[in-house]
Amino acid sequence: MIEPVAKPVVRTEVGRVKRAKMQKTIVVEIARRVPHPKYGKRMKLLSSRFAHDETNECKEGDIVEIKECRPISRHKSWTLVKIVKTASAT
Asked: What is the DSSP string of the chain?
């Protein structure tokens, strides 16, 4: 019997637009809370991802959802899915 091939899971992240000064590229800052290895206190870790914004619709401060895709350039391997909340609404 042939088993069905499982589709790969697409990673998605929600973060805040840190920079939107490049053409068709945004920098999204993602905050995670992880426990300290020794003391256990929850710490806030920030990481940045370059994401592709085809229509240049994002502005700094927007809350956006991005998903992982094939590499578009040297640093870009994420694509904008949607704008969750605009900067003026925050």
From this structure: -PPPPPPPPPPEEEEEEEEEEETTEEEEEEEEEEE-TTT--EEEEEEEEEEE-TT----TT-EEEEEE-S--SSSEEEEEEEEEE-GGG-
